[in-house]
Design brief:
2 copies of one chain form a homodimer.
Chain A: H1 2-8, H2 20-28, E1 29-32, H3 35-43, E2 47-54, E3 57-67, E4 71-75, H4 81-84, E5 91-103, E6 111-121, E7 124-125, H5 129-143, H6 156-160, E8 164-168, E9 171-177, E10 196-204, E11 208-209, H7 221-224
Antiparallel strand pairs in A: 1-9, 2-3, 2-5, 3-4, 4-8, 5-6, 5-10, 6-9, 7-8
């Protein structure tokens, strides 16, 4: 499956020799150097997978991120040595959107349509109080726009209990695959099999009030209008 | 946000002292030792994030996986030194399902409902031809059930070009959060703010035929009936 194989080739092996067919395939699954592609991928979600090395072995942790166009913010627990110390250990932050299954005529050509970004670097602990509050605002507004002005702001104790990390977007890698299967112009087209894409869609559902909430408390507009919309 | 903070505490820091409130919170975001929880999480998706260490730094690669209850299979490119060599380097495979935003009365108590699993270990390259074909069948049938008997099977050349890795499910960690926000019984309930959950739903869309496909080729039943169903 292309989805898996392509990524392994990113910077960790020899460049494969290219012929017309692999060039054609490469054009469907494209690396991108466009900053706008990176921005779009980051804007389209709010969960990333952060890779760290702990005692020589990898750990991949899902977490929420926020982005202001220059910096990616995410939480590092005050209890985590490898992250809070900061300034030492490199991370890899991966953001992935799976867009559909690519159903080819051969199993070998099956794959996935996706948009993904990897950001590398050493995250910086954000400790200066004003910067930290602003970073938390970016983090919050990225996933739940409007909540920063609605819900109760963090107090001093909560701020102290929150470790915020900042990662520059300088070193990033983007890969995107769109479109139908790659084998429509090859010998397998003669097999007469169906081929195409089964898209995957992610949407917000309907608000579920906290059961202990009094009945007369209405959901604010910025939350209500998010219902039944695409992620 | 709980989503980020909780995970950092997994095995990488001191255990926080517990009071009634944190115990209550811990019960909503639960680690699980139930094998059935792990199986359910793996069954519910087909994309994982694989963490590897390359030259001392982490790399987090999204890829497709398949699982037969005992073993998790995924691709490692023949061009990837760190993965194909196998037998040396530990990986962390993380499978995450994001189920919704937890909208609390305070920003500090905001979080995410999720199901996630981390599987650790050294992946084994699957080289014996019969086992490799069976592993690829598991991988394929996990994400696209029915395709193995429909699309063209891999030939010898394609099998040789595919690196398949097997990871035992022995060493796994599961974490799940469900339910409303944690601050309904605290002082912030007096603020009169709305609180609850905004669920996130992932569904398959409608099949998109390859544009070069002749019009009289119909999608097989096992694909057609997947349309508009939940992931």
């Amino acid at each position: 499956m292309i989805f898996g194989s392509d990524w392994w080739e990113v910077g960790v092996g020899p460049v494969l020799p290219e012929n017309e067919r692999t060039r054609h395939r490469r054009l469907r699954a494209q690396g991108s150097r466009e900053r706008s592609d990176l921005d779009a991928i980051l804007a389209a979600g709010f969960v990333c997978h952060v890779g760290v090395v702990v005692d020589g072995t990898p750990l991949v942790v899902p977490t929420v991120y926020g982005c202001d166009g220059e910096t990616l913010y995410f939480h590092g627990s005050v209890a985590s040595r490898s992250l809070v110390a900061g300034g030492q250990d490199e991370v890899c932050v991966t953001v992935t959107h799976v867009d559909g299954l690519v159903l080819a005529r051969s199993l070998f050509e099956h794959g996935v349509n996706y948009r993904s970004a990897m950001i590398f670097g050493v995250p910086r602990p954000v400790t200066e109080p004003e910067e930290k509050l602003e970073g938390l605002r970016v983090l919050s507004e990225h996933s739940v726009p409007g909540q920063w002005d609605y819900a109760r702001l963090p107090n001093k104790k909560e701020l102290a209990a929150t470790a915020l990390l900042a990662l520059s977007l300088e070193e990033a890698s983007v890969k995107i695959r769109v479109g139908p299967p790659d084998d429509g112009d090859g010998p397998d087209a003669a097999l007469g099999l169906w081929a195409g894409v089964l898209p995957l869609r992610t949407t917000w559902g309907e608000l579920e009030p906290d059961p202990v909430l009094p009945e007369d408390v209405e959901a604010p507009d910025h939350l209500a209008r998010r219902q039944n919309t695409p992620l």
